Amino acid sequence: MNKPQILVVEDDTAVGNLITTTLETQNYLFHRAKTGAGALMDALSYRPDVILLDLGLPDMDGVTLIQKIRSWSNLPIIVISARSEDSDKVSALDAGADDYLTKPFSVEELLARLRVALRRVRYDTQKTDQEASVYQNGALKIDYAGGCAYRGEQEIHLTPIEYKLLCLLAKNTGKVLTHNYILSQVWGNSTASDTPSLRVFMATLRKKLETDPSHPQYIQTHIGVGYRMLRQKETPDAS
User: Fold this and answer.
1) At what angle are helices 62-70 and 36-46 packed, to 10 degrees?
2) Predicted confidence band at 234 (pLDDT cuts at 50, 70, 90)?
């Protein structure tokens, strides 16, 4: 198996060295860019498997860079930024980032997030047409053609909205979806006032999906930001 290629976009020398040294110890291949323009060229030239991206670049904002990359690629982008406000996280995730790690961070957490992103890459590349019509994640199965969901052999009786929510999360497994994005995809709008209704639907979906809704295995909440479908057999710190 080829070693994963990681593009590190970070203009801070100390942080960049920490990240690249960490990748090197884990035998990842990497390229380093210190500007948005350089990152775009590297992304086009090297076609990395994952991008680790700082938002505070000298020539352009990282959110703008995410939007540019998303215009031609769906490769995983993990933001690593000192911006810790929920609004900053939402802006990056709405632009198309897959995950958001706040500085300062532990190398263990960085590697865990990276493993999640790489599992998504492997899963996406290994799917066959048959697998694409049936989603399997642990005991959860969704038959897209039949419009049914199962936990083990037992069918989960879902309302149309709950089913839409489940399918949206499943098709973006491992990726944090913001409240705005979910509202726009499921209801056709992204009004912040509708977020409480979304929480209610997510709570009812969890009760039907999870063995223990108070300790969810599938749907992870990112408070103030959104939700993520977890792929089963992830390590605990990968979330």
Assistant:
1) 30
2) very low
Q: Among 208, 183, 177, 188, which residue's Cα sits nearest to residue 90? A: 177
The answer on 141 and 101 residing in a single domain is no
Residue that is written with structure tokens 């790690």 in the block: 101
Q: Are 31 and 48 in contact (CB under 8 A)?
A: yes
Tokens of 63: 């959110």
Per-residue tokens: 84: 């810790």
pLDDT in tens, 72-101: 988 999 999 998 888 999 999 999 999 999
- Could you tell me the two tokens for 141? 């199965």
Q: What pLDDT, on the 0 to 100 scale, is given for residue 125?
A: 60
Given a cut of 80, whether residue 178 has pLDDT beyond it is: yes
Sign (positive or negative) of CA dihedral 48, 54, 60, 61: positive
DSSP assigned state of 238: G
Whether 7 shows a pLDDT value over 60: the answer reads yes
Q: What are phi and psi of 47, to 5 degrees?
A: 45, 65
The single-letter code of the amino acid at 184 is S
Its domain, for residue 29, covers: 5-125
Core vs surface per residue 175-212: b (16+ CB within 10 A) or e:
bbbbbbbbbebbeeebeeebbeebeebbeebbeebbee
Rounded to 5 degrees, what are φ and ψ at 46? -95, -15
The residues, ordered by sequence, that sit 6+ positions from 140 with a Cβ below 8 Å of its Cβ are: 149, 150, 151, 170, 209, 218, 232
Q: Do 79 and 187 fall within a single domain?
A: no
Strand partners, 228: 220
Same domain, 99 and 150: no
- Give the CATH number for residue 134: 1.10.10.10
